[in-house]
């Protein structure tokens, strides 16, 4: 776990918002055509926040590189979900080190 990478990823409010939305997918992405247990399709973030596809992809990529989300690719689609174990480990690391 790279705490600095995670902190950088969390420094942008849109990325924090994405993580918050993914915490309750049934509330925020109920109109997704695919089952939510597959993860959240990248285009759902675009619809919800109104940002361009490239901007959304960059934010999701940053979260993935930091280890906060995992990606499941199905054909041309990318589905994202929170990595709850990584998030819990990061929070525990912060508790013990700060």
From TrEMBL:
Protein name: Transcriptional regulator
Highest taxon, organism lineage: Bacteria
Keywords, sorted A to Z: DNA-binding, Transcription, Transcription regulation
SMART domains assigned: HTH_ARSR (SM00418)
Alphabetized InterPro entries for the sequence: ArsR-like_HTH, HTH_ArsR_DNA-bd_dom, HTH_MetalResp_TranReg, WH-like_DNA-bd_sf, WH_DNA-bd_sf
Domain HTH arsR-type stretches: 1-98
Gene3D superfamilies: Winged helix-like DNA-binding domain superfamily/Winged helix DNA-binding domain
């Amino acid at each position: 776990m790279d705490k600095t990478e995670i902190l950088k990823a969390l420094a942008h409010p849109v990325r924090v918002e994405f993580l918050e939305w993914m915490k309750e997918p049934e509330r925020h992405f109920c109109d997704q055509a695919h089952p939510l247990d597959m993860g959240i399709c990248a285009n759902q973030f675009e619809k919800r926040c109104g940002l361009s596809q490239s901007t959304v992809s960059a934010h999701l990529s940053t979260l993935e590189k930091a280890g906060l989300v995992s990606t499941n690719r199905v054909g041309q689609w990318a589905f994202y979900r929170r990595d709850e174990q990584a998030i819990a480990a990061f929070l525990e690391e912060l508790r013990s080190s700060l």
